[in-house]
Automatic annotation (TrEMBL):
Cofactors named for this entry: Zn(2+)
Gene3D superfamilies associated with the record: Zn peptidases
Domain Peptidase M14: 29-305
Family: Belongs to the peptidase M14 family.
Keyword Protein biosynthesis attached: no
Pfam families assigned to the protein according to its UniProt record, in alphabetical order: AstE_AspA_cat
Keyword terms of this UniProt record: Hydrolase, Metal-binding, Zinc
Superkingdom field: Bacteria
Name under which the protein is recorded: M14 family metallocarboxypeptidase
């Protein structure tokens, strides 16, 4: 077990502003939100409504936030939300959302209104990180008076539609860097000891512990299993510390934890977790798994509405 202290801060002491500034100085831009996300969104304007729902100003950088909506929006139809890039380093969430829009969204016209926010955390996307510049995890910050601008912007976007969502799919990844970087950084930031755990090899889902939908989750697992492998439970019968309640499925109390998948009152909601570091998965498979998950979720919800 690696017991080397995290290189920022003092073990056992939570970070102050100086430590956060040091951490921020180490985060280098490694890819382009404009090239990878804004350019594809611009091309989608021909077929869908594209709206700016916020602006993140992190001097010297500024990031417009865009959502893609069904052009044939009808007030009598239920709504579905697809979110990606809550954690900017989880690449297939962003590109899977964009690929879904490009290849499949039009096929749901007239059946359900779709709202897709493909990259909620563009600063973190460029730096391949989990947090925003304030060392805040947006995916623990979806609550009233959120300290994360990324989370607050999405909450404002969905607020007018809260009681109309039927389904929400939030696209994520679990990566080897969770164990090598992000969990150690979290422990250091909070002044707590880092307790190593394992990384599950394969795709899994997080259901809502407060309103579980086991048949919905299993329909998604069955669809994704045709694309990539499903994570098994560990020796304790768990996936990342939570009991596996069905093949490839665990449960969290989504809303009380401030998770993105809890931002609506949708009956059917899930968080996907792709494993991009598996030797058995390619980037293309990871994107395809996200697309398959969204399509399966929508198809099940519509069939059981």
């Amino acid at each position: 077990m690696d017991t080397t202290p995290y290189p920022i801060g003092t073990p056992g002491t939570a970070w102050g502003e100086a430590e956060k500034a040091e951490w921020r100085s180490r985060q280098l831009r490694r890819r382009s939100y404009a090239d990878d996300v804004l350019s594809p969104i611009e091309r989608l304007r021909e077929r869908f409504e594209v709206t700016q729902y916020g602006q993140l100003d992190y001097a010297p950088d500024s990031y417009p936030l865009f959502a893609i909506r069904s052009r044939e929006w009808r007030d009598e139809l239920p709504c579905a939300l697809v979110t990606g890039g809550v954690h900017g380093y989880e690449t297939s969430g962003v590109h899977g959302a964009l690929q879904f829009v490009d290849a499949h969204m039009a096929g749901y016209a007239g059946r359900i209104n779709l709202l897709v926010a493909p990259c909620i955390s563009p600063w973190a996307y460029e730096r391949i990180h989990r947090w925003n510049p304030q060392a805040i995890d947006p995916n623990r910050s979806f609550r009233e008076n959120s300290p994360a601008g990324e989370s607050a912007a999405l909450l404002r976007l969905v607020a007018p539609l809260l009681d109309r969502f039927l389904v929400h799919v939030d696209l994520h990844e679990t990566t080897d860097s969770d164990e090598s970087e992000f969990r150690p950084a979290l422990a250091a930031r909070d002044g707590k000891p880092f307790e190593p755990d394992g990384i599950p090899d394969g795709f899994y889902l997080v259901d809502d512990a407060d309103s579980p939908q086991p048949e919905f989750q299993q329909a998604i697992i069955e669809a994704v299993a045709k694309v990539t492998h499903i994570a098994p439970a560990d020796a304790r019968g768990e996936i990342i510390g939570s009991p596996m309640v069905a093949p490839g499925v665990i449960r969290y109390p989504l809303r009380s934890l401030g998770l993105c998948a809890g931002v609506t009152d949708a009956r059917y909601k899930t968080t996907t977790e792709v494993y991009p570091d598996s030797p058995r998965a390619t980037p293309e498979q990871c994107n395809a798994a996200q697309v398959a998950a969204v399509c399966a979720a929508l198809d099940f919800a519509l069939a059981h509405a």
